[in-house]
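Look at a sample.

——
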Amino acid sequence: MTPNIIQELVNNAKRCECESFIEGDPVQFPHRYSSRQDIEVSAFISAWMAYGSRKVFLGVLDRLHRMMDAAGGPYRFIVTGAWRYLSNEGCLYRFYKWADFSVLCQKLAGLYSRMESLEELFVPGEPLEKGVLNLCCEFEGVNGIPVPGSTSANKRLYMFLRWMVRKGSPVDFGIWSRVTPAQLLVPVDTHVYATAKALGLTSRSSADLKTSMEITGQMAQIWPDDPARGDFALYGSQVM
């Protein structure tokens, strides 16, 4: 990276990682809550839904959160089984059906019957990939969750992890401690991939997991203890 590119990325990160970022992002929904478990459930569901048209999926998420709040909040909605009363028929959003949301809730309910937090799927000192594999195995068969061992970029799961792990951020929550910010990967979607490629941060031909690792390696040159901050830097870049 040239000094000019590094400075651009640093400036972008400073500009984008602020409270005003929250309003137009799915992270706005877990920010409605103060309870750790409500934040975690809301964040996982919000990340699962975050694809396609931002305007549309934010509207769907608002509808789901109003429904969960009527049951006492996201965590109570899951553990009390309120989701069992949903209709499993019809389309929820794009490729998701209401039945997919019910299966996701069922898997979450099963996990919370055994543990207090999804963080328990991650073992301190082990590679992050092992925890991601554990998470994917627990949700195997859920539409929208990568199959265990997938080579996809897993953008939404790594975005969820960014929210849970990064500390001292006005956007991210930092409520997990078993994973360190240094372990995180930059969540790679179409925009981040195109921007990174335009800046010469990756030469790979597709936005897969190896691409995410390559981009993260570049970001670690700027933020060695917090490479996922590069997500804000690339989000804010005007290079396309």
Summary: The CA atoms of residues 112 and 159 lie 21 Å apart. The chain has one domain: 3-235. The chain has a mean pLDDT of 94. The radius of gyration is 18 Å.
